[in-house]
Amino acid sequence: MIKTTALLLVFAGALSMTPAQAVDVDAIPSEIVQAVDAVQDEINTVTTPEPEPEPEPEPQPQPEPVPEPAKPVIQPYATTLGTYTTSYNPRQTNRNTNIRLAASAISGTVLQPGEVFDFNKVVGQRTEAKGYKVATVYSGGEAVDGIGGGICQVSSTLFNAALLANMQITTRSSHGLRVHYLPAGRDATVSWGGPEFRFKNSNSYPVKITASYDSAKGKLTFHILGPSNATPPQTKIAVSKSGDGYITKRYMNGEVNYTTRSYYKD
Predict the structure, then answer these.
(1) Does the pLDDT at position 41 exceed 70?
(2) Which of 55, 63, 119, 175 is the most buried (most CB within 10 A)?
(3) What is the pTM of this model?
């Protein structure tokens, strides 16, 4: 009832009140004043228009994600850095056995960056207990029979593969006599207790040495392998006669980076 009375008062006042008229507010009961205020709020709420809603933004097309290119898979030993092959007589069974045993001992050797390959340490002492046979060896500038004859063909073949692979040759000696399986200046003799043959992997990545031999055809091959992203070195080997000896030089990109001398007994 009070709310209805208040509503009538609001509308009556709005219709009849003039600027000159005044209302005695104190004479109006407080319940009616409160009801009038509440009704006035309702009127304002009803008569106040709702704001227009903001339009939804148009969806923007999103670019398709570009997949990252797959990284190439690097195979550890897929590039041949250097390889060399020498021939031997397949009918010399003792010598061929020695070649096979020594090559097998070396094959699979991995050299880490900065690591040195030491022929005698890797192959070990050549003894009958290990299966090595008596064959011709060079000793003191003479050809004599000895255990492990033919081993120097293994070291010499590996020496040439290391030369072509641009390995750092640290220790190498020539035979006292010319060998039949390599040109002068291209051999590397070894013996238990010395001479020694050593080279260093100066690359920033590991390399692997592998050997293969064809006993029927008499072929011995060494490979020095690097990762698939390695670039094979552009090496060139040149040997020249100098007085009573030979000078072997390795050129890398046109510049000499290794020189060794060889002397043979006539």
Answers:
(1) no
(2) 119
(3) 0.74
